[in-house]
Amino acid sequence: MSEQSPAPAQSVFREGLLRGQVALVTGGGSGIGLGISELLATLGAHVVIASRKPEHIEAAVAAIRAAGGSASAESLDVRDPERVAAVVQKIAGEHGRIDLLVNNAAGNFYAPSESLSPNAWRSVIEIDLYGTFFCSQAVLPVMKAQGGGRIVSISMTLHYRGWPLMAHATAAKAGIDALTRTLALEWAPYGIRMNAIAPGPIPTEGVRKAFTPPPSASGQVPDVFAIEKAMESYARKAIPAGRWGTPRDIANMVAFLASPAGEWITGAIMVVDGGEWLAKNPSPQMQRP
To answer: What would the CATH number be for the domain defined by 22-203+245-284?
Structure first.
């Protein structure tokens, strides 16, 4: 896609900015989470990548190490508070600290609200919202003991205006925003800075599905080229900055908040979306020819 800018090969941050720090990134083996993990490792942090899917985290750790970074993997379902606590204690025991938690694990998909099953609703709420709380609560004693730390949760912009077919995800992410502000106030005396990032449209698998029309009555599969053109058209018309976002765009904000520059920032929801949500365009599903 012509509007998709590639992630920069060289970081905009100084070398070694996060050297000596330990970062835990949930859902850090693919998509936005992988972009965050890669940048943090580039800046000198040891990154612990946690996910339910071993194939994702093992490949991510191998790639980071091959590039000269420091990383390790932990199998983790953020919906399980006992497992979350065990993983956090293991990391703290092995490395002596946890400086940064990135709550990135999510389980979003498009589905009509009228037919959304209780299990589908529960799954997204538990991964996105419960998982954010469980992980944040688990790292609290570690960060208190070391005199502070940073927690960054990944939210979204869709709940700012409503987004058809995403009732479960928008409800969960709105909860993350509220949780961020509340915990920021509660935990500021411990030196913990709690913020969130609301990414705009980044061409993940879910976004591509939103632009993919169903098969025709004859069973003809949608043309990949047509899908790409539709996405390019959306970027030109709906994103004021004129392009889709990249994982590096979000990773840069995580690094900023984790750096000394973020010392006096807490309780903030940082929107990184090229101005898309302000344009108030309808979702791809609701657009009419």
So the answer is: 3.40.50.720
Tell me the pLDDT tens digit for each residue of 74-84: 999 999 999 99
Contacting residues for 153 by C-beta, under 8 A, at least 6 apart: 102, 103, 132, 136, 176, 179, 180, 194, 195, 196, 197
Query: Would you place residue 203 in the very low, low, confident or very high pLDDT band (cuts 50, 70, 90)?
Result: confident
Question: Domain-by-domain residue ranges, the chain?
Answer: 22-203+245-284
Do 136 and 101 form a contact (C-beta atoms < 8 A)? yes
Write the DSSP assignment of the chain as a string of letters.
-TT-PPPPSS-SSPTTTTTT-EEEEETTTSHHHHHHHHHHHHTT-EEEEEES-HHHHHHHHHHHHHTT-EEEEEE--TT-HHHHHHHHHHHHHHHS---EEEE---------GGG--HHHHHHHHIIIIIHHHHHHHHHHHHHHHHT-EEEEEE--SGGGT--TT-HHHHHHHHHHHHHHHHHHHHHGGGTEEEEEEEE-----HHHHHHT-PPPPTT-PPPPHHHHHHHHHHHHHHH-TTSS---HHHHHHHHHHHHSGGGTT--S-EEEESTTHHHHTPPPGGG---
Half-sphere exposure of 271 (CA within 13 A, CB side): 11
The confidence score (pLDDT) of residue 219 equals: 63
Counting residues of the chain whose pLDDT is more than 70, the rounded percentage is: 87
Name the amino acid, one letter, at 80.
D
> Which tens digit of pLDDT belongs to each residue from 257-285?
999 999 999 999 999 999 999 986 655 55
